[in-house]
Specification:
single chain; alpha/beta; Metallo-beta-lactamase, Chain A; 7-stranded mixed β-sheet; 18 strands; globular
Length: 304
């Protein structure tokens, strides 16, 4: 199967610790890199993960709290020092362009590439990116400021030709694309060869959902239904549920309940509060409700 791989660069929350970097992830889809949030130190982690800057063209920022975007300026500057020429697209809630442009004008007066800012509405799901193999749709979340998650959905690929059957019926090369896309084959004698005899289905499309800082929203079940992997913040354990409500965050148990109700295949929890020196307590809390739960950690790589 083609690559569909998540790289965790940072999984901590606002206060720095020696254990975790602030939030950042990179999704590798067929060697195209999509960055999700960009906390401090992201470019260093990017290097450690042996990812290629040249393959990064789109960055998705969930919200404008520092632990999710303070790494952007350093990354942009580094790309400029490297002589990048390809454009960089940054997708975010309203306000990021206004914040970044004065800094760029002062420190990077001779940019070697263009940055294109794309603002999205955090109130409703919206398609923010599409290419021939992937769509990215926002997931409305509820935090102290406008915030969205993201759903990365692979498109269904064409059927696979069964070579032996195609040869048996003498299917010409120019008919192959039509047959891959579901058409029957009609022989020169007028015989109709059903598509099911000539092809087999391609692999099911994969989906990854990223839910950044938010209170737990049961209304997300429909949009998250059956995703292959769900990342959901689990800043606190049940012992700090009042603090979670106060700061518009989620507990590990709440994230697991959402994963269970949405029937996702695997749950990845992160964005850990600095108060937890051992996040295994959060893993146990979540796994008791949804066993297919794993803890995020720096340099973790998950292939779907």
């Amino acid at each position: 199967m083609e690559k569909f791989e998540l790289n965790i660069l940072g999984c901590g929350s606002a206060l720095p610790t020696t254990r975790h970097f602030p939030t950042s992830q990179v999704l590798n889809v067929r060697e195209k890199l999509f960055m999700i949030d960009c906390g401090e130190g992201t470019q260093l982690q990017f290097r450690k993960a042996r990812l290629k800057f040249s393959r990064l063209n789109h960055i998705f920022i969930s919200h404008l709290h520092g632990d999710h975007c303070f790494g952007l300026f350093g990354l942009i500057s580094t790309l400029n020092l490297l002589g990048r020429t390809a454009g960089l697209h940054i997708h975010s809630p309203r306000g990021l362009e206004e914040l970044l442009l004065p800094l760029l004008a002062f420190f990077n007066r001779q940019m070697t590439y263009q940055i294109q800012f794309h603002e999205f509405d955090t109130e409703v799901p919206s398609l923010v990116y599409e290419d021939r193999s992937l769509t990215v749709t926002t997931i409305p979340l509820q935090h102290r400021i406008p915030c969205s998650g993201f759903l990365f959905a692979e498109k269904q690929r064409p059927n696979h030709i069964i070579r032996d059957m195609a040869d048996f019926y003498g299917v010409p090369v120019y008919e192959m694309n039509r047959i891959k896309n579901g058409s029957d084959y009609v022989t020169p004698e007028g015989q109709v060869i059903p598509n099911r005899l000539l092809t087999r289905p391609s692999e099911p499309p994969r989906r990854y959902a990223y839910c950044s800082d938010t209170v737990c929203l049961s209304g997300l079940v429909g949009q998250l239904k059956g995703v292959d992997l769900l990342f959901h913040e689990a800043t606190f354990g049940a012992d700090n549920a009042p603090r979670a409500r106060e700061t518009f965050h989620t507990t590990a148990a709440q994230a697991a309940t959402l994963a269970r109700d949405a029937e996702v295949k695997q749950l990845l929890i992160g964005h850990f509060s600095a108060r937890y020196e051992d996040e295994s307590v959060l893993l146990k809390e979540a796994a008791d409700i949804f066993p297919h739960t794993v803890l995020a950690k720096e340099m973790l790589r998950i292939s779907l």
